[in-house]
Amino acid sequence: MPGAVPCGANMFARPQRRRSPQRYAQRFPQPIPQCSPQAPAPLRAACAAALLALLSACTTVIEPARPQARALPDTERPVTSPGATPRERIVEIATQEWARWGGQVVRLGRDDTSCVTYSPVPAPELPPELPLASPTDAAAPAVATTDTESKTNGNPPPAASCLSFPDGTGMEATPLGCTLARRYWGIVGETPSCRQVTQGAWAWSAVFVSWVLRKAGLDERQFLTGQSHSMYVVDARDGILPRPAFRIEPVPAMPRPGDIICAGRGRDRYLEDIAEIGFGTTPMHCDIVVAVDPAARVVRAIGGNVQQSVSMEEIELGDSGRLDGVTNSHMPWLLVMRNDLQ
Questions:
Q1: 276 Cβ neighbours under 8 A, 6+ residues apart
Q2: What is the pLDDT of residues 166-215, one digit of tens each?
Q3: How many CB atoms lie under 10 A from the CB of residue 142?
Q4: Nearest-CA neighbor of 166 among 190, 131, 134?
Q5: Which residues contact 156 (CB under 8 A, 6 or more apart)?
Q6: What's the N-to-C CA distance of the chain in angstroms?
Q7: What is the rounded distance in angstroms from the CA atom of residue 293 to the CA atom of residue 316?
Q8: What is the C-alpha separation between 90 and 290, in angstroms, rounded?
Q9: What is the number of alpha carbons within 13 Å of residue 100 lying toward its C-beta?
Q10: What is the pTM of this model?
């Protein structure tokens, strides 16, 4: 009978489908061609060179442009705004650190004064003597930085109406201040004691700047840390880095947020020629610019070890409306480290 199912056949078997041609000749790509021993000698040499270059890229360690101290372990990752640029991260992290120290403010006036206008700690009654070194300090260098001049920077003592904090007082003499300052020293592998943190020989303004820039994401091709400001100033001046984040511009100049402004200290406070700055030998002080108000002729910058704290300096500009080296003798500005990052 036509169409009948033969006896014994599986009546539930699925009808055979016609196999269509395979759409792709191969689902996976061919393996990378290998150089066989029978390959011509030039081809084998080219393969060997390519393999060596690949292995070298995986194992080569790029050395910094100058010797760099190994930072102590530090897992802290400051939180910044989503999508913040490197320049914005620098400003945000510096501002966060200033807030952690209590938000101290110092006014550098056109009247040649330098006064604390706000501090989270009361004014000291009497300047205490510097504490003597303890046995635990013996393992650390006696002088850790060249930025060791008296923090009055050669000026006479301030008037009674002008609040200031001598060495051994202020926020750096508190347990919180000691902890935070020692944290900055870790960026160059040092572990000073709380006694040393309050001494001029361990001025921590340069390691504060170094810590902020590292936490903002700048690598060793862009910025190298240092325990003295003149180290990274000379790096920028001499252009030794492969991808420098900063370049030097002499004053008078108008800085921008994210720039670093620097002045000479002590014997070099009125240094005029940037070419005379010695690597690690010229005493300096530098701050991170966080805001500029051209209309009010005020630059706001945050620096470490300013009046024994991380302070915001409200810098009143002179008649030129730009940062200069003559308006305030407490901080005779010498140069601007221009931030070339976004």
A1: 282
A2: 999 999 999 999 999 999 999 999 999 999 999 999 999 999 999 999 99
A3: 11
A4: 131
A5: none
A6: 87
A7: 10
A8: 9
A9: 17
A10: 0.77
